[in-house]
Specification:
Number of helices of chain B: 11
Oligomer: heterodimer
Shape of chain A: globular
Strand order of the largest sheet of chain A: 6-7-8-3-9-10
Largest interface: A-B, 32 and 25 residues
Number of domains of chain B: 1
Distance between the termini of chain A: 27 Å
Shape of chain B: globular
Largest sheet of chain A: 6 strands, mixed
Helix content of chain B: over 70%
Bound molecules: adenosine-5'-diphosphate, magnesium ion
Distance between the termini of chain B: 31 Å
Strand content of chain A: 25-35%
Chain lengths: 253, 242
């Protein structure tokens, strides 16, 4: 399987604090990778580095064979920021159409994206008048509108009801099946089972990089929440995480 | 193409804010009317002040509106997101320039129509030149507003850049004290402030029937200041942030 994203020895400081300490990982093409970890662990920072908007101290991030942030990547990558970044004083439809236009796409694509996130009924409402969950879906519509090859979604399902969450995950799966590479962050463990691969991150260190099944097997539990805790404890006591299914779990020094 | 879509988007945002649009048109006309009655008993003074006000309103208003609009782009994350798309920095900057240029033309058009038709404003030169200079001033205000927004973290800070950048230009442009009567060092400062030239250009339109060389030179200086401010503003748009 070819890799869409390669991160090597990535060190990022934010403010005076180091946030990522030499993180490395590889994300395969056409997959959904879950980026999981507690709040403040560095998920957003890693995603920003992949998109190319984060100043990095050292290390490399390669996306589709080019350095992250390369001008040629701008038409290939979609980014959903954690806080919805859409214009509150435009309607949902106007937002989607503007972002579609930036990729050279027309109204049909924009309207399809609005439907895909379940906002067809609210399309002519001002984003400023929407609920929090709707607003973040409006933002999502603008990220998926170009059907990019690489889609970085920072907590796309927060604040959505279970039915919608299910529908959104079906969308993500559909995009991956048509060849897109998705990185989806979440701090809700029950979403992890829907991913092809998981990156578990804690305090800027990768404590697992494997399939959900392998992560669970390596921790010896069926419960991902529990597996995460087990892996953290192991890491804390300096015991290296066991290897599962032949894939090395990243254990940073 | 992206440039025009960006212009359209900014104008659409403005259109959803009906009250702002109403104020853009109403405020200058109301203030001009106020001036008209204030100087009722002093013939000629209204002509002098109203002419300059027609050029200065768009500068101040577009400065304020743009600095807040751009600050919002920065604080709500839309700027960061835009810079991850194929949009170029110039698409954004000139998108703002075109959008607020159009808004300023509408504003100056209404204000001039009122001033010339109802308030008997009298200038030697044609009203079209007044509108042209007013739009250039608006675009200058817009460009400085884009630049100023980079130095503001909050909207409270952004609005306070207006007195910092605009009031000294107003005080020194020759409206309150003729430039020849100012101390040498004040004149030197006045010489490097773009509004000085905008005001001089307007005074040329007031005094001569045909556009003068001085007017065109002043107009070019204002346009040059716009380019300098836009280039500086482009430098504040960073794709990567800490
Ligand atoms: N702009 C910033 N300036 C300084 N520190 C920041 C900034 N943004 C985030 N941080 C810090 O970086 C760490 C990681 O943040 P983040 O990547 O947002 O974590 P997550 O997305 O996993 O919640 C946190 O400790 C946070 O306080
Ligand atoms: Mg985050």
């Amino acid at each position: 399987m070819t890799s869409a994203i390669e991160v090597a020895d990535l060190v990022v400081h934010r403010g005076a604090r180091p946030v990522l300490h030499g993180l490395s990982c590889t994300i395969p093409e056409g997959s959904v990778t879950g980026l999981l970890g507690p709040s403040g662990s560095g998920k957003t920072t890693l995603m920003r580095a992949i998109v190319g908007v984060q100043v990095v101290r050292s290390g490399t991030v390669t996306v589709l064979g080019r350095p992250a942030g390369d001008a040629k990547l701008r038409s290939e990558i979609g980014y959903l920021t954690q806080a919805p970044s859409v214009y509150a004083d435009l309607t949902v439809r106007e937002n989607a159409r503007y972002f579609a236009a930036l990729y050279g796409l027309g109204q049909a694509e924009a309207d399809a994206a609005v439907r895909d996130v379940g906002l067809a009924e609210a399309a002519s409402q001002l984003v400023g008048n929407l609920s929090g969950g709707q607003r973040s879906r409006a933002s999502l519509a603008c990220a998926i509108v170009s059907k990019p090859k690489v889609l970085i979604l920072d907590e796309p399902t927060v604040g959505q009801d279970p039915v919608l969450r299910d529908e959104l995950w079906a969308q993500f799966r559909g995009l991956a099946e048509s060849g897109s590479t998705l990185v989806v962050s979440s701090h809700v463990m029950d979403e992890a089972n829907r991913c092809d691969r998981l990156l578990l991150i804690r305090e800027g260190l990768l404590i697992a990089d494997d399939t959900p099944a392998a992560v669970k097997a390596s921790a010896g539990t069926e419960d991902l929440d529990q597996a995460f805790l087990t892996l953290i404890r192991r890491q804390g006591t300096g015991v290296p995480a066991p290897r599962a299914t032949g894939e090395a779990s990243e254990v940073p020094s | 193409m992206i440039l025009l879509h960006t212009t359209g988007r900014i104008l659409r945002q403005l259109r959803h804010d009906r009250r702002t649009v109403a104020m853009l048109v109403a405020v200058p006309t109301l203030l001009l009317t106020l001036l008209y009655f204030m100087y009722d008993s002093q013939p000629g003074v209204f002509d002098h002040i109203a002419l300059i006000m027609l050029g200065v309103f768009p500068f101040i208003i577009m400065f304020l509106i743009t600095s807040i609009a751009m600050l919002r782009e920065r604080t709500t994350g839309t700027l960061e997101r835009l810079l991850t798309t194929p949009l170029r920095k110039t698409d954004l900057l000139f998108g703002y320039g075109l959008a607020f240029g159009v808004a300023a033309a509408v504003q100056a058009g209404f204000a001039s129509a009122l001033a010339y038709l109802l308030l008997d404003l009298d200038t030697q030169g044609a009203a079209g030149y007044v509108v042209m200079i007013a739009v250039a001033n608006a675009v200058l205000g817009m460009a400085l507003g884009l630049l100023a927004s980079a130095f503001a973290k909050t909207e409270f800070q952004a609005v306070q850049f207006m007195p910092v950048l605009a009031v000294p230009q107003l005080l020194l442009c020759g409206l309150f004290v003729p430039r020849e009567l100012m101390a040498g060092w004040l004149q030197a400062i006045s010489d490097v402030l773009p509004l000085t030239y905008a005001v001089e250009a307007l005074q040329e339109v007031g005094a001569y029937a045909e556009p003068t060389g001085t007017m065109w030179r002043d107009f070019a200086i204002v346009a040059g200041a716009v380019v300098v401010a836009l280039v500086a503003a482009a430098g504040t748009l960073r794709r990567r942030t800490p």
